[in-house]
């Protein structure tokens, strides 16, 4: 089981919304993770994917991607979203592939680990329907 699959299994058990979205990891590389988000169950009345489903899935994918770095935790780490910006480019009318890439990782002035990520949501033909920039912080809850 890859680190991403382990985090995904723990997340599905503890975060109800993830199982509702039906998101699943499909590729686990050192600085890149890929997920599939099916259209069925995330569709609006016009036949395209809800923007909220895309936004939540990008956030969840980024969180799971980042959690892989937090190997000192036996349980799910306390990662918080500090910043998220999503640009919706076109309607998503097929199953989606979410790609998350680590752009930067550093310690801030409070010695909290910070992860800056880039993400995209593409259709089955490779057309981008959304792009995002995210920043997560690992909180130390001693």
Structure description:
- This protein is an alpha+beta fold and 142 residues long.
- The model has no long low-confidence stretch (mean pLDDT 91).
Concise synopsis of the structure shown:
The protein has 142 residues and is of the alpha+beta class. It has 3 helices and 6 strands. It has one domain (3-138): Thiol Ester Dehydrase, Chain A, CATH 3.10.129.10.
Helix content: 10-25%
How many domains, in number, for the residues?
Answer: 1
Helical/strand content category: alpha+beta
Largest sheet: 6 strands, antiparallel
According to DSSP, the number of beta strands is 6
Distance between the termini: 29 Å
What is the overall pLDDT average?
A: 91
CATH topology: Thiol Ester Dehydrase, Chain A
Strand order of the largest sheet: 1-2-4-5-6-3
Give the tags:
alpha+beta, Thiol Ester Dehydrase, Chain A, six-stranded antiparallel beta sheet, 39% strand
Secondary-structure blueprint:
Elements lengths: L2 H12 L1 H6 L2 E6 L2 E6 L13 H17 L11 E10 L7 E12 L5 E10 L5 E11 L4
């Amino acid at each position: 089981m890859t680190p991403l699959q382990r985090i995904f299994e723990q997340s599905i058990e503890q975060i109800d919304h993830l199982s509702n979205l039906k998101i699943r990891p499909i590729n686990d590389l050192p600085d890149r993770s890929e997920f599939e988000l099916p259209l069925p169950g995330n569709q609006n009345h016009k036949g395209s994917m809800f923007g909220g489903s895309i936004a939540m899935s990008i956030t969840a994918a980024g969180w799971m991607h980042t959690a892989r770095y937090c190997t000192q935790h036996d349980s799910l780490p306390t990662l918080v979203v500090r910043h998220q910006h999503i640009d919706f480019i076109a309607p998503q009318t097929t199953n989606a592939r979410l790609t998350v890439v680590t752009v930067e990782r550093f310690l801030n002035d409070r010695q909290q680990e910070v992860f800056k990520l880039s993400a995209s949501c593409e259709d089955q033909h490779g057309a981008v329907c959304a792009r995002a920039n995210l920043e997560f912080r690992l909180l130390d809850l001693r």
